[in-house]
Amino acid sequence: RHSALVTSFQRDPGWKLFGKIPPREGAIKDPTRIQKEYETKSGRAGPGNPTSPRQGVRKNLDFEPLSTTALILEDRPANLPAKPAEEALKHRQQYEEMVAQAKKRELKEAQKRKKQLEDRCKLEESIGTAAQIWNQEILPNWSALCTSRRVRDLWWQGLPPSVRGKVWSLAVGNELNITHELYSICLARAKEKWSSTSAHSLETEPEDPGSSDRESSLELIKLDISRTFPHLCIFQQGGPYHDVLHSILGAYTCYRPDVGYVQGMSFIAAVLILNLDTADAFIAFANLLNKPCQMAFFRVDHSLMLTYFAAFEVFFEENLPKLFAHFQKNNLTPDIYLIDWIFTLYSKSLPLDLACRVWDVFCRDNEEFLFRTGLGLLRLYQDVLTTMDFIHMAQFLTRLPENLPAEQLFQHIAAVHMTSRNRKWAQVLQALQKDPERGSPVLKR
Amino acid sequence: MAYAYLFKYIIIGDTGVGKSCLLLQFTDKRFQPVHDLTIGVEFGARMITIDGKQIKLQIWDTAGQESFRSITRSYYRGAAGALLVYDITRRDTFNHLTTWLEDARQHSNSNMVIMLIGNKSDLESRREVKKEEGEAFAREHGLIFMETSAKTASNVEEAFINTAKEIYEKIQEGVFDINNEANGIKIGPQHPTTNSTLSGSQGGQHAGGGCC
To answer: Which PANTHER family does this UniProt record tie to the protein (chain B) (predicted)?
Structure first.
C-alpha cells in the first residue's frame, strides 16, 4: 500500500475539476489558445465536462409543443348513446381550452429554458472574457496591478475558475518560503511515519492503550479524509484525490508538528487541491494556515478566538441591531455558527462554487472578509431568523439552505459596513486584544 | 407545538464514533454511511412523550477531536442529559472514556444524567470492546449503559428516551430544580393538551421541521 501511495502521488491524478490549471503549464497563456480552450469547453463539451448547458438544452430549442399532440378528443364508444349536441359542444370547447392552455404553458416553459440557456451562455462568455483579462493583462503585471481599483472590482465579481488557483497562490503568497523540495521532504517524513505506524499496529495488540497522539493524529487524518466532501466522491478511498489529500495533510503534520492535524484542515486542503497542483496546494495551505486568524483557530487559542468573536459582535450589533438583540435574548452566541464557518472557510457550509467565491475575496481582503461574509449571511436571512427560537436558529445557521442565492448573498455582504465608530476591523480587533475583559462572555468559563 | 418540558442533551465522545449518525437516526430516522465531519457543534430536536407528557429534546452534537475540547466544554452548561459515546470496534475510543467523564462531571451540573453508549453494535465481527466491559464501566461510574447501532437503529430510540425517563424521574423526585434553567430543563410555555396526537415514542419530528 505504501508503494501505491508513492506512485499515485508521482503521477498526480489526471482529471481536473473546476478548471484546474494543468500541471507544469506556464502562468501566461497564449490568447488564441485560451480562445480555443474556451470554445472547446463551451461548445463541444468533452467527457470531462458533461454538464455543459449548451449540449443538453439545444435539442429542445426549436419549440414544439409535445403533450398537446397526445390530447385527443374522442367520441363516445359506438355501443353507448351519442352525446347530446349541446354537451358535445361544451366538451369540445373544454377540450380546446385545455389544449390552448397546455400550449401556452409549454411555450412559456420553452421560453424559460431559452432564457436560462442564454443566461448561461452569457455567463460563460463573461467568464471567458474575464479569464482573458486575468491571463493577458493582470497576471503578467501582478505586483503593479493587484491593488488597483479595476482589478479589485474584477476580483470582487469572482475569479474565473481557470485562473483561480494562480490568483489564490499569488494573493496568499509564500512568506514561509516553502519550496517544492521542502514539501517532498515533509511528505517523505510523513510516509516514513505511516509505514512505521502500520508496522507497529500489526505487531501490537489492539488493546494497547498507549498509542501516542501523533499516531492517533495520523489515524484521524485517515478517518476524516473519507468525511471530507463525501458527496463529491473524489477524496474517498479509491477516489482520484484521496492520496493527494492524505499527502498534504500528512506533510503538514511533519512541517508543523506543534500544530498537527486539526479537524477542518481537510476541507481547506481539499479546496486548494481542486484548484492547484499538489506542491503548490501545500505551499498555499501552509501559508494560509499561518495567517493570524487561522493560526488562532487551528491552535485553538481560546482567548484569541474569543477576541475574534467579540470583534464580530461589535460589527454585528452595528449592522443588524434588531437581529443582534434577538440573538442575545435567545442566548445564541457567535461561536455556535462561526466556529464551523471560520475553521473551514465556509467550504463546508456553503455550496462549493459559492465558497470559492468567498475564498476569492478572502484572498483579497484577508480575515476581515470571513467575518463580513458571516454578517452578510445573517443579513440575508435576517427576516426568517427573527421569527425563530434558539434551536431553530442554531439548526438553520449550522446547516444553511442548499439553494442559497449567490448573487443576493454578495449583495448583502457588500451592504455590510465594516466600520464601527470610525474604526476598521483591524482596529476594533486590536483594541479588544488589549482589553480582554471586553471580550464575548461566551466560552469564558 | 406545546411541550411540558424541554431537556437539553449533549452528545460527547471521540471523533468518528457515530455521534452525528445517532442524532440523525433519532431525529430523521435515517442513516448516512458517510456523514460529514462535525466542526464545533450541530443541533437536533425532537419531541417525545413520557408519562403522557410532551417533552422536547434539544440536542447538542459536539465535535469529538481532542483539540476542540476546550470549546465544547462550555456546551455542557445547562445540559440535563449527556450521551457519552464510544465505538465498540475501536478500543481507543473506550479507553478515552475516563477523560470524557472527568470533563463532563467537571463542567456540568452534578445532576446531569449520563448515558454510556457503545455504538456500531452491527459490526460484531470487528468488535474490540466486549459488552460486559461497557456494562462494568457504567456500573463503576454510575451511568446507564446501552449498545446501539445508528445504522440499524437498534436501541437508538431507547438510548435517547431512557435518558429522558431518568431525568423525568429525577424531576418527580425533586432532585432537579426545574425553575433553574442551569439544570438544562425548561418548563414549556403552556401545558400540553391531554388528547395529544402524538403517542409513545412515535412523536418523531424532522430536525428542521416546524415542531413547536
So the answer is: DRAB11-RELATED
- Specify the 3-state DSSP secondary structure of A405: coil
Contact A380, A386 (CB under 8 A): no
Confidence (pLDDT) at A69: 57
Class of domain B3-185: alpha beta
pLDDT of residue B179: 75
- Find chain B residues with C-beta within 8 A of A442's C-beta: 74
Chain A residues close to B65, C-beta within 8 Å: 220, 262-263
Q: Cα A236 vs. chain centroid, distance in angstroms?
A: 18
Highest-pLDDT range among A71-85, A274-288, B31-45, B183-197: A274-288
Report residue A368: phi and psi, to 5°.
-50, -40
| A residues 179-208 closer than 8 Å to B (CB) | 206-207
Nearest CA-CA partner of B82 in B66, B65, B97: B97
Q: Tell me the domain boundaries of chain B.
A: 3-185
Q: Does A381 touch chain B (CB under 8 A)?
A: no
pLDDT for B26 beyond 90: yes
Q: What span, in angstroms and rounded, lies between the C-alpha atoms of B89 and B93?
A: 9
- Indicate if the pLDDT at residue A114 is higher than 60: yes
Of B37, B67, B128, the CB nearest to A224: B37
Q: Which three cell numbers stand for residue B55?
A: 417533552
Separation of alpha carbons A322 and A245, rounded Å = 43
pLDDT at residue A216 in the model? 60
Distance of CA A191 to the CA centre of its chain: 29
| Residue B101 one-letter amino acid | L
pLDDT at A30: 53
**How far B212 CA lies from chain A's nearest CA (Å)?**
10
Cell of A4: 501505491
Contact of B209 with chain A, judged by CB distance below 8 Å, is answered with no
E strands present in A96-198? none
Closest CA to B171 of B1, B8, B5: B5
Q: How far is CA A155 from CA A66, A79, A168, in A?
A: 45, 75, 11
Sign of the C-alpha dihedral computed for residues A12, A13, A15 and A20 taken in this order: negative
Predicted pLDDT of residue A37: 53
ipTM of the complex: 0.86
**pLDDT digits 0-9 by tens, A300-324:** 999 999 999 999 999 999 999 999 9
C-alpha cell of residue B103? 470533563
Arithmetic mean of pLDDT, B133-158:
97
In the three-class reduction of DSSP (H, G, I as helix; E, B as strand; rest coil), residue B83 is classed as strand
Question: How many residue contacts between A and B have a Cβ separation below 8 Å?
Answer: 92
Query: Shortest Cα distance from A252 to chain B (angstroms)?
Result: 16
What is the average pLDDT value for chain B, to the nearest integer? 88
pLDDT tens-digit readout, A182-216:
999 999 999 998 888 766 554 444 433 334 455 56
Chain B interface, mutation test: which of A391, A402, A442, most B Cβ atoms within 10 Å?
Answer: A391
A223 touches B at CB < 8 Å:
yes
- The reported pTM is 0.79
Chain B residue numbers with beta carbons less than 8 Å from the beta carbon of A206 are 91, 128
